[in-house]
Specification:
Number of strands: 5
Order of helices and strands: EHEHHEHEHHEH
CATH class: Alpha Beta
Oligomer: single chain
Radius of gyration: 15 Å
Strand order of the largest sheet: 2-3-1-4-5
CATH topology: Rossmann fold
Strand content: 5-15%
Helix content: 55-70%
Number of helices: 7
Distance between the termini: 9 Å
Largest sheet: 5 strands, parallel
Bound molecules: shikimate-3-phosphate
CATH architecture: 3-Layer(aba) Sandwich
CATH superfamily: P-loop containing nucleotide triphosphate hydrolases
Structural class: alpha/beta
Length: 175
């Protein structure tokens, strides 16, 4: 089976859905941010602080090439991964790619529920966050929509809803 790569904006549920999908399929799950953190012994926030966004993007591309070589896995990427270099074409050449699509309002809710520190969102008020999501989502959608599949995600605020999304995704992928 080809690997499955989940892409989408921060807070779209890539890690949550990816982990459950891998569990249901009995295959390994990787999260690209965690993979980077493990390989570099640094958090993503530290890498941004030490090397800037450009430095992070280079590392992200290199680590994508490492992780995407693993066979038969579910890999969730960072929100920016598809939008730099030829990362999206590279992912499409190797795997089934899925765009987890959500409205800016749902993304903002998920981000508020989560605990991960995201350098690009640091220090924003609720209003600024929503505005930022709306603007950057517009810039990023042309990349995201290159994915082979799209899954519309609603608010994933309980386990049943996560399970439903995973089920819908399995039906689309035929796995
Ligand atoms: C980023 C998303 C983050 C992480 C980094 C940059 C982005 O991953 O890679 O903070 O540019 O959208 P998540 O989408 O898993 O939060």
């Amino acid at each position: 089976m080809k690997s499955i790569i989940l892409i989408g904006y921060m807070g779209s549920g890539k890690t949550t859905v990816g982990r459950q999908l891998a569990l249901a399929l009995g295959i390994s799950f990787y999260d690209l941010d965690w993979y980077i953190e493990m390989r570099y012994h640094r958090t993503v926030a530290q890498i941004f602080a030490e090397r800037g966004e450009q430095g992070f993007r280079e590392i992200e591309r290199n680590m994508l090439h490492e992780a995407a070589e693993f066979e038969n896995i579910v890999l969730s990427c960072g929100g920016g991964t598809p939008c730099f270099y030829d990362n999206m074409e590279y992912m499409n050449s190797l795997a089934e790619t899925v765009y987890l699509k959500a409205t800016p309002e749902v993304l903002a809710m998920h981000l508020k529920m989560g605990k991960v520190e995201r350098p690009l969102l640091k220090g924003k008020t609720e209003e600024e966050l929503l505005q930022y999501i709306k603007e950057s989502l517009k810039e990023r959608e042309p990349f995201y929509t290159k994915a082979k599949y799209t899954l519309d995600v609603t608010l994933l605020d309980n386990y049943d809803k996560i399970k439903t999304s995973v089920q819908l995704l399995r039906e689309q992928l035929g796995v």
